[in-house]
């Protein structure tokens, strides 16, 4: 299976100076060539606990307009819970291969849920240096525990507790996004699914790579989601494109990284920008991250909010069902 191949490549080639050709990125994508080495601004960091709500809203809106990404601190998720989440995920990826395979995505499944590697090559035939586990965590009606590991034994407990706090953080962020657009507090959340909004957790695992100068964990992309809320481990690797330059995201312990996804860019009629980002890999250490993708139900129609449109500001995007948008993007068809 493809996952076994990546694991075998990672372990067998740790001391080698080459990697298989289908993992080597074109020169214009190689981190060693394209990562900006000069002084660069840091991704905005926002303290969600500040009592002055107006200043928090302003900071979030500015970050979404200028960067499409920001980090939040004092977000209310306990530090020890984040540590337990990370420990549970690491425990799973440290298991023997056959134990992890018990959670593999079934052959022919159209679902994204399950354990594995990227299942298909990109259009250019290249592969990405990563491994992952993907499953829904909210709402309860969409959760399939078939893909939740039972080892470690506390995996379910930790992830359900994390999801409870994550939903509170998300509601704060949606409120800020709404007010930042000059709308009612609930406008953005209601426009992307309200209480039907789906929370999809992914654990990314990037094994040590003998040639991190040639490979990528994930190639440049924007997220399909409304927003993505991510916690990383302490191994650097997230890069964002800012003013035509690939810059490294600074690691801040226990901060959450918030990505603006495609659906918020569409909904805001382009005022908030979906961030183009990618993941690099490390020669000595495994990098891990825990993104939660907040997505509308498949049948939900997302388009520019009518409140933001006028003769001077016509719609820049088509309104369409999320499942249709997703199909077009994943198959590289025009939207």
From TrEMBL:
PANTHER family: 2-OXOGLUTARATE (2OG) AND FE(II)-DEPENDENT OXYGENASE SUPERFAMILY PROTEIN-RELATED (PTHR47990). Belongs to the iron/ascorbate-dependent oxidoreductase family. Keywords: Dioxygenase, Flavonoid biosynthesis, Iron, Metal-binding, Oxidoreductase, Vitamin C. GO terms for biological process: flavonoid biosynthetic process; pigment biosynthetic process. GO terms for molecular function: dioxygenase activity; L-ascorbic acid binding; metal ion binding. Coiled coil: none annotated. It comes from Eucalyptus grandis. This is Fe2OG dioxygenase domain-containing protein. The keyword Metal-binding applies. Residues 196-296 form the Fe2OG dioxygenase domain. It holds the Pfam family DIOX_N. InterPro entries: DIOX_N, IPNS-like_FE2OG_OXY, IPNS-like_sf, Iron_ascorbate_oxido_reductase, Oxoglu/Fe-dep_dioxygenase_dom. PROSITE patterns: FE2OG_OXY. Its cofactor is L-ascorbate.
